[in-house]
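**Archive record**
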Amino acid sequence: MTLSFGSRVGRALQQHGTPLVLIDSNRDRCIDARSTGIPCIFGNALSEGVLKDANIGTAQAMLLAISQALEAGPIIRLAREANPGIAILARAHSDEEVAYLHKAGADATIMGESEVARSMCDSVESLLRLAQRLEAANRPPAGDNAADPQKA
């Protein structure tokens, strides 16, 4: 089974020992999450009682991994009403969605395209540093005439 974005996040948090409750409207993903030890509430976070069942009132943070920002906005507002101090991180796909989610009350957003670009830049920098170390390691020591036949 291909993992959804939210399932990938949930598994990573679980591996780091971070307590979490997953809310998913896909029954198969909920069953899969439960089989790996992740508590999952089957339903939509906008449905009455679902956020309460997830203990949103005492949660320290909420991560919204859903792909629809227009659905995420009302969820953010409901969570903020239930728990004004909760830290909210939401997924966005465009600058417009970032602005919308912040206006809805998200503390921070992650936009996939920006994260991929940042990761690619970090990777290029790492590759360049590795190439420089390899070049330096393969360079003959200074004053080594045996490595330069013209000086021998």
